[in-house]
Amino acid sequence: MRRKVLLIFIIFLGMQLFAQNRQLEYDGGSDGTRDFCAVPDGLSLLAGDNTFTVELWVNIDEHVGSGGTVLVGAPSWSTFFFWVDQNNAAVYSMGNGSNVVRTQNSVVSLDTWTHIAFVKAGTSAGDGIIYINGTAATMANDTPGSSNGFTGNRDLEFGIYNASGSNPRPLRGRMDDLRIWNVARSQSQIDNNKDSELTGSESGLVGYWQFNETSGQTITDLAGSHSGTLGASSSAANDDPSRITDIDLPLPVELSAFTAVAGNGFISLEWTTQSELNNLGFIVERAIESPDGPYQEIASFQNSPELQGQGNTSQETHYEFTDTLLRNDFTYYYYLIDVDFNGVRTYHGPISARPSVTAEIQKFTLHPNFPNPFNPETTIKFEVPAIENGRSTVELAIFNGIGQKVRQLQNGVLDKGVYEMSWDGRSDQGVLQPSGVYFLQLRSENLVRTQRMILLR
Q1: Which residue has the higher pLDDT, 237 or 8?
Q2: What is the pLDDT of residues 257-280, one digit of tens each?
Q3: Residue 303 CA neighbour count, 13 Å, CB half
Q4: Quick check: 282 pLDDT over 90?
Q5: Alpha-carbon gap, residue 250 to 17, rounded angstroms
Q6: Residue range 228-240: mean pLDDT, rounded
Q7: What angle do CA 280, 283, 285 make, to 5 degrees?
Q8: What is the mean pLDDT of residues 145-169?
Q9: Which of 174, 289, 443, 452 qualifies as a FRET site for 78, CA 20 to 30 Å off?
Q10: Beta bridge pairs of residue 427
Q11: Ordered alpha helix ranges (H), 388-435
């Protein structure tokens, strides 16, 4: 089942949170009339400079007939459509049918929610690409051709090709969250946003249908003026897809807060979960100066213990991660990704912050030691904010894996400021400590911050 990052409705069943999302269900003509949606003048959304992206979620129960299943088609434009063929390859066909972009067979599974993104970056061979669940598919054909001729008052149809004609290849299954862009979206842009609901005002987004209306015939275009109808008209009929409500499995993580605070050369990320279900942990991805990316993974629960999840818990849990060694006066964007036991990823964000030399110290911050693992010495950086009396009592100590204090680095009053200290792997008595895991603890008033360190001899 597909999950969305932003929830439209929230309902409580016992103590567990569920996401509620509406979709369109197409019967494939089982009642004698083929279901479809019509968008007047929709083909014009794909005109322009020969670049576009069409993406959607689809769950195909089975193919009707031998021709496959059409997802988006243009009835008044010969052989133009986006579809899944009878071999479960994803395809789009342009113009007179000689221009085809097609994946290898069996990339789309039936009776399974699949995200498909059709991308056209130009007119030459190699300019077409199709992404399946955010990953580029291996292409069998790649001759996209020109879309400059897509003008005039030509409709688009969802879930069928040429509803009134022969060989319409109707959808039997469900469709959700269809988007059309006038730009060629990158892999990271598609993958990072496929599970998130958009606002409709994103740059390059020209058509966006969530299908979340509760009643009526209209399917609303949240990005522009191309709203359409269920079926062929504004009156209810047998060719209307059904509006259904899908109650997803419990969300793996119920996130109640996700914030970024900038300092001098660093950004602190904090988030709080109200509950966690089968949560392995978190991944942090970062982009510089653009919310659209490209994003790079900078930390993962696989190598950062502080990002490991709680598995299953109904208790509130607070997490922190500090991104250090950043350039001041640049804006950094972050996605937080939670990963469940099945490897399913859910994206939160993006959020942003801009480090600066003049950034005010807003809270006690303990940065990750560097290097880590280390031998023979590591550097520890922490920050002390201003408080009412101007000074704070700060204790910085190191504990071994069984909880014994081995080194006291600081225990006294400090003014507001940024401090750096080092640890040479020795105890207070000057004895070299063995290889292993150690814990760095910053304590002040009612606050405690802890970091994990690894000493390798």
Answers
A1: 237
A2: 888 888 888 898 989 998 888 899
A3: 7
A4: yes
A5: 6
A6: 91
A7: 165
A8: 76
A9: 174
A10: none
A11: none
